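Re: your question from the hallway

Yes, I did run it. Sequences:
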Amino acid sequence: MMDARHRSHGCPRTWEVEAARDGRLRAKDVDSLVRHLVGCEVCRRRQDQLAALGAVLRDLPPAPDDLLAARRMRHRLFAEADQLVLQSPNKLRLRPWLIGSAVLVSSAAALVLALRVPGWLRSHAAPAATATAPVFASPLQVQVEAQEGAVWHRTQVGSQIRIDLETGEIRASVGARRAGESLVIRLPDGEIEDLGTVLTVRVEQGRTTSVRVFEGRVRLRLAGGNALELAAGDDWGAPPQPKPEPAPSCSTAAPDAAPRRRASASTRQERRAEAATESPRKQDPAPSAEATTNPQQGREEDEAYLHMVALMREHRLVEARAAARDYLLRFPKGFRREEVLGVATSVGR
Amino acid sequence: MTQARRASIAPAATDQEALAALAGGDISALGTIYDRHRTSVVQFVARAVSNHADVEDVVHATFMTAMKAAGSFDGRESCRPWLLGIAGRLVQRRRRTLLRFARAMGELMWHETRTAVDPAHQLGARDLVGRVSTGLQRLTEAKRVVLLLAEVENLSCHEIARALEIPVGTVWTRLHHARKELSQLLEEADV
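Structure:
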């Protein structure tokens, strides 16, 4: 057996090349191999082959990793970390049981749906759908109604459901979610992260033109703009596209790149936000989406938020309120804006 | 007081300090670790999992596990090998869980936009990188994780053994078989 292997490789010491690479040889054996390599073509070829294999593996193209995904993952990580810290020990003990139950229930639901809706898969075989009625239900309980002519399709990426809307209008209704589940509607110029809601979204000519939220909340992220949270009753419309004009003079207002809300969208929460951040917005524009992805920026934001939380835990409510306002002044569109707004407007009353 | 509190949550200079702070309940240190090592972990996981839909979940689980296990970090200068070890174990473990079954069921139902064979992948398989990439996906996850940690992440076999909590002999065996299978592909490509 051994002889056959040696004959096939042409040198009985070929195995030592790989062994040396993996740190399996003692120092004196490595020295011996180095001397052997000078005169052995077969072992040198094996060495080159292993080096080439490593080089090709290192040269494999990197996985795509976009800024929006990075932001979403960071937000998800901190949300779960917060939840974990605030959980009581009793709840922590229940988690494995709850997770197991959730898995069994979702498996059973998937099986029942697969058996009861046999024609469903066929109706979704096309790469893009143009449906006009509720089309599917999943463990996440997502229902999509598409207006005539809407072009969209859907994928399940891990525990996340993605709906890619190319053009037209769809209405999405999202039921209760389990931990880790999420729905993201990807648009030609951004994405909407669902936070448990019913909404409609319209895309025209590769551009998001309107988002209406009927229940719950969504987070809208458009390329080149900051994340915008829309709550029930909000009706977001895209600003008119800037006409091609000569470069504006200093006195001319620059076109508003960030999405604007219509007058009907001003909810109580939004009025609070505007009251808390009115003055800094006039003087100092909010950090851009890119700035928010900056690790340093993110760290400062985390620190400001955690400082406020620490004060809350110590029941130093007046200082917590001041810290919340400080956060809003520094990060008017930060990830924790909503939670901080609650503190800024309620603590100490 | 405020100044002192702010100083206590200043960004940690080293991974060791950050993980010590995290173990002590300072969640901001999680952001420090995440910002430093997210890219490495994402790239490793993207190569290690056979289903790319799992990447985001595995990366998320890696950092959550790191947060829970921060106290057990052995104090090396960089926690990158430690994080990659967690990610590697999650990749292997994920395959065995019921969650995967549930997800597979889900994907069976909602597979409308994916094709069974990626055309770009087929085209890429004509060249060397494509062959290796295809071969990598054909390896078992256990072999693939070890090979990537050794050849791409440059961890020693002992580091891999410690990170994955397996005997070093197992690392050597998996590495040998993984290379053998991939070398056949390289030979076919006349390299």
